[in-house]
Write a structure and sequence with these properties.
By secondary structure, this protein is of the alpha+beta class. The chain has 5 helices and 9 strands, in the order E-H-E-E-E-E-H-E-H-H-E-E-E-H. A 9-stranded antiparallel beta sheet has the order 2-3-4-5-1-6-9-8-7. A hairpin with a 2-residue loop joins strand 2 and strand 3. Helix 2 crosses helix 5. The longest helix has 24 residues.
Length: about 210
């Protein structure tokens, strides 16, 4: 199997729900991802959104409950988030803090030895609930693993859409930790790297790639 990371995202739950959603400067939004002619921004049903036309990432969503920032790499994510926090403060949202946050990664594995729906079932469940002669498939698998007293890992695994021998995983590393002051870029990168190390050791290597 060949693994690659598709994107990384930060989800911050505001300490106090916003009473209003800021209408960010249009030029700032257009320049945030470095693609001003492909970037759209404005209110959507999810909240104030900055996104590349017809692309799932990079993306920003701001609503009264949470801030979501999605980037192609952890370095891009850190840069987008730091710029956004500064811009929100300019709009009057000073002392932005979060009561909890998640660092999420989307991954794919290609060139599985069989169809992904068969592989998922055989890898995670066959030995415990199936006889060897039975035909079995599993299209989606969801589970949660507690990590310490204040963290847990939500894992969604499914066949990669449009790729017969491809596997997809969305791994949410949730932290019940308060962020009173948003960290600078170096500390934010360290936060992401520590999270990805936990995901690598406890989910990817132990559960998915444990041949």
């Amino acid at each position: 199997m060949k693994r690659s990371q598709i994107c990384t995202s930060f989800v911050g739950i505001f300490k106090s729900p916003l009473s209003w959603i800021p209408n960010l400067d249009n030029q700032f939004c257009r320049d945030l991802f470095g693609k001003p002619y492909d970037t759209m921004n404005g209110m959507t049903p999810e909240g104030y959104t900055i996104a590349i036309n017809n692309k799932p990432f990079p993306m920003v969503i701001i609503n009264p409950e949470k801030l979501i920032v999605k980037g192609e790499t952890i370095e891009a994510l850190a840069g987008y988030t730091e710029s956004l926090i500064r811009e929100l403060e300019k709009c009057g949202l000073s002392k932005i803090g979060f009561s909890a946050y998640g660092i999420n990664g989307e991954y794919q594995w290609l060139e599985l030895p069989t169809n992904a729906d068969i592989w998922i079932c055989e890898h995670f469940m066959k030995d415990s609930i199936f006889n060897s002669h039975e035909y079995h498939v599993c299209n989606n698998l969801n589970f949660r693993i507690n990590y310490g007293e204040t963290q847990y890992l939500n894992v969604d695994i499914a066949p990669r859409v449009g790729i017969r021998d491809g596997l997809y995983a969305n791994i949410n590393h949730h932290h019940n930790h308060i962020i009173d002051v948003f960290p600078d870029t170096a500390d934010f990168l360290k936060l992401i790297e520590e999270s990805e190390k936990i995901v690598e050791d406890n989910i990817i290597l132990r559960l998915i790639e444990n041949h």
